[in-house]
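Dear colleague,

Following up on Tuesday's group meeting, I ran the structure prediction for the two-component complex that the binding team flagged. I've pasted the input sequences exactly as they went in, so you can double-check that nothing got truncated or mislabelled along the way. The structure tokens for the whole assembly follow below. Feel free to forward this to whoever is handling the docking comparison.

Inputs:
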Amino acid sequence: MTQTTRRALLGAAPALIAAPALAQNQGQARLVVVGGGFGGASAARFARMSYPWLEVTLIEPKTRFVTCPYGNLVLAGTRRLEQISHGYDGLRARGINVVHDWVAGIDPTARSLRLRGGATLSYDRLILSPGIALRWDALPGYDEAASEIFPHAWVPGEGAQTTLLRRQIEALPEGGVVGLAIPANPFRCPPGPYERISMIAAHLKRHNPRAKILAFDAKNAFSKQGLFQDAWAELYPGMIEWVPANQDGRITRVDPGAREFESEFGTRHKVDVGNVIPPQSAARIAIEAGLANASGWVPVDPLTFEARQAPGIHVIGDANIAPPMPKSGYVANSTAKQAVASVAALLRGEAPPPAPVYFNTCYSHVGEDYGISIVGVFRPNPDGSGFVETPQSGGVSPRGNHPEQRRLEALYADAWYASITRDMFG
Amino acid sequence: MPSPRRLTLALPLLLAGPAFAQPATNGPLLAQACLGCHGPGAAGQDGVPAIAGRPAPELVAQMTAFRANERPGTIMGRIARGYTAEEITAVAAYLAQAR
């Protein structure tokens, strides 16, 4: 920051001078946000728009962000990858310093971080929204090389995994078998595997109607289960078999060469296309910085999202531990705003905003003009140890014959996508 | 100041209850939750209606009706039941003056 802007800041906002962090840094208030997805992009944009006295830097390796939401529609062939890819020019135009680099290390004591490109950045407050890592050591037979045969398509990166799975589904032999291996909780996007099953089925129904989908699950129940299973029976009769853990659904080994999944009791299942969604953890940067506990995820304060291990570093999005909130894009967006408001308050020497409400709405497409949803309204629990869902609220779409509701929810799902991505990148 | 005519229109809604509640102070932050579907500035997005700039008593009346299952909707009833009367009042007050 230049001397001129520093003076301008001091002149414009006398209240800032009193704040301890600002006094130390001669009027600067530097927020660095790491990770440019649903949490990080939302945080950077909200910080810039609501607290213009914050100098905001966003660090994100990729120049284009491919969303996980709507990736399943790319698999169905009803969206193209370009339609779910977003650049950072909108955030730059708002005055955010967007740096495309990897973070090599964080020094919480010096409040600085090193970039792989060599630069060192100092911050007054750091928001980490690093997302997830796939645990390549968690499922025997499934490593990065195996994902070139059995794609995960769960961390979109630049889209190669989604494109690979799409091509495999298009090339499925007539009457062939698509196998999915679905992990235990917690994992990113709880309804995601089941929307994926639905969207693959939508494609197969049109192009390969004798094909089968075998979905092996490490759980006995899943998000929006009744609604998904009703829709499968109605739209794709006989096509989808979901195998829960208590019916030997837990996949314990995969053999990409033989195109086989092996389940807990030793049964081998031949698949023509295999989509393996492996167990997950917080992204590597959070673990290397010592922020995660033994579970591989990051405990946080439910009011400020500061990591329990490192106050001053706020961890939002899928990397943190926040049940009963799901690891969803909307929760990342909603909690990003409270984290930013807390950052701003703490930098001014004030208390973080009390009594926040965190919000989630997740739509899933299950067929053409057929959408379903889950809503959740959450708060910090009274003793500050975690989060609680607001009683008598939220929940899933009604079951039964509600054709207008299904059509409207498919429409509102598209509006949700347009709206929330504008709230991130616009 | 609202005109006497508008006050008269608004009063029956206020008497219904929630608008008498002391508004929570965090309306702007609470209202952020709306933007993921209702668009930036709550100005509407495709089929999801604009809610910014609507009179606060109207928004309170609608949310209260959603909460009581008196107003048909796809997801708003499930959402409205997650908020207190004070929070609804605060969000409505914020949205009413937002443009």
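The helical segments of chain B are 4-15, 27-31, 35-38, 56-67, 76-80, 85-97.

Cheers,
M.
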